């Protein structure tokens, strides 16, 4: 499909090519469609890890 950048649209909850919704409504850019598709999972995993690290400081 596209050799450009990929984004995950938070408004439509789907992967979009470089030309799509405004960047303020998207996560990215990512190098591949597959990376963009995993954006929410990756963010969730990172948030969980950061929360656990904050708990270790107590």
What report would you give on this structure?
A hairpin with a 4-residue loop joins β1 (6-9) and β2 (14-17). The chain has one domain (6-56). The chain is built from 2 helices and 3 strands; from the N terminus they run βββαα. A 3-stranded antiparallel beta sheet has the order 2-1-3. The protein is elongated and about 40 Å long. The model has no long low-confidence stretch (mean pLDDT 91). It has helices at residues 33-37, 39-56, and strands at residues 6-9, 14-17, 26-30. The chain is of the alpha+beta class.
Spell out the key features of this protein:
single chain; 58 residues; alpha+beta; 3-stranded antiparallel sheet; 3 strands; 22% strand; SPOR domain-containing protein
Strand content: 15-25%
Poorly predicted residue ranges:
none
How far is the first residue's CA from the last residue's CA? 49 Å
Radius of gyration: 14 Å
* Whole-number total of structural domains: 1
Strand order of the largest sheet: 2-1-3
Helix tally equals: 2
The helicity comes to: 25-40%
Strand tally is 3
Overall 3D form:
elongated
The SSE string, one letter per element, is EEEHH
Main beta sheet: 3 strands, antiparallel
Rounded mean pLDDT is: 91
Structural class: alpha+beta
Protein name: SPOR domain-containing protein
Biased composition (Basic and acidic residues): 18-28, 42-51
Region (Disordered): 18-58
Organism: Nonomuraea guangzhouensis
List the helices and strands and how they pair.
Blueprint: E1 6-9, E2 14-17, E3 26-30, H1 33-37, H2 39-56
Antiparallel strand pairs: 1-2, 1-3
Region (Disordered): 18-58
Biased composition (Basic and acidic residues): 18-28, 42-51
Protein name: SPOR domain-containing protein
């Amino acid at each position: 499909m596209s050799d450009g950048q990929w984004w995950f649209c938070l408004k439509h909850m789907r992967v979009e090519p470089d030309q799509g919704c405004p960047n303020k409504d998207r996560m990215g850019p990512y190098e591949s469609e597959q990376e963009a598709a995993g954006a929410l999972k990756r963010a969730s995993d990172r948030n969980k890890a950061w929360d656990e690290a904050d708990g270790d400081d107590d």
